[in-house]
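Box 3.1 — From sequence to structure: ABC transporter ATP-binding protein
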Amino acid sequence: MTNTIEIDSVTRQFGRVRALDSVSFAVPEHSFVGLLGRNGAGKTTVMSIMAGQDRPTSGNVTVAGHDPFEHAPTLAQISYVRDNQRYPDDYRLHHVLRIAPNFAPNWSPEVAAELVEGFRIPARTPIKKLSRGQLSSVAIVLGLASRAPITLLDEPYLGLDVTARAFFHTVLLRDYEDHPRTVVFSTHLIEESASLFDRVVIMDKGRVVLDAASDEATETAWVMSGTTPAVTRLTGNAQVLSTSTVGGLMSATGFGALDSETRELAQELRVQIVRATLQQLVAAYGANDAASDRKEEVRSA
Ligand SMILES: Nc1ncnc2c1ncn2[C@@H]1O[C@H](COP(=O)(O)OP(=O)(O)OP(=O)(O)O)[C@@H](O)[C@H]1O
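Predicted structure (token representation):
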């Protein structure tokens, strides 16, 4: 499979802050990748490098075969949605919709019209007076109606109400199926978006801590709950990412295949083992200080 985006040993230093620390991962063509992690993990930094708006301090980035920075043919293939989009003061929606197709050769007026109506974006209000959610809606209209081969969505949901988010998912999935493209999507609303992703890249403290097919990631992650001594015994040799205790009970979230012996012992000790959700997995990596010191190798269970 061809990789549309390749990030190779990328480091980005802002003064004393190392926002990205030797980050490597690839985004296969026409895949839908969830870029996840805690505040400050480095998601926006890596996305703006992919979008050609910033350059790494060291390392290499290839998008559609080129370094995207100031490379016009590559930039023309990218649609980048983030929350800091600025518009001229007197702009209203129709100004944006008139200009956008000049930058997007695959522009779909039908998708734009459907989104504008579904999001209920007011046509006459100046863009600078729109609400937070309405501003996000305008950015999403640009991001999706562009039908860019490479679509980068950085927290596109800010301020969007629950109905708007569900509507956005429906249009996004339908249009992605009809017009396949490579999508990188960063969000903190993990449960809501998990079904969209075929791959997930989890970052923490500027590093990639997990890069896997989403099914594989959750099949290999587990949550054990039971009495503290029992869970402690069972997790003795396992890779535990985070634990919490309440009274005499413990819950541990971990990653890695569990053998049949461990599962039998769990039954004996009345420890419940369930598959972790993507949200539990991301939360566990974010709570684990050791995880960002290594990148997990994914093994099938
Ligand atoms: N221009 C900058 N100057 C200094 N530090 C920066 C700059 N841009 C980002 N950082 C720092 O780099 C780190 C990564 O920031 P980034 O915005 O990539 O995180 P994020 O994962 O997108 O977070 P969030 O989920 O909160 O949006 C943070 O510690 C941030 O403070």
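Summary of the box: The domain at 220-293 is CATH 3.30.70 (Alpha-Beta Plaits).
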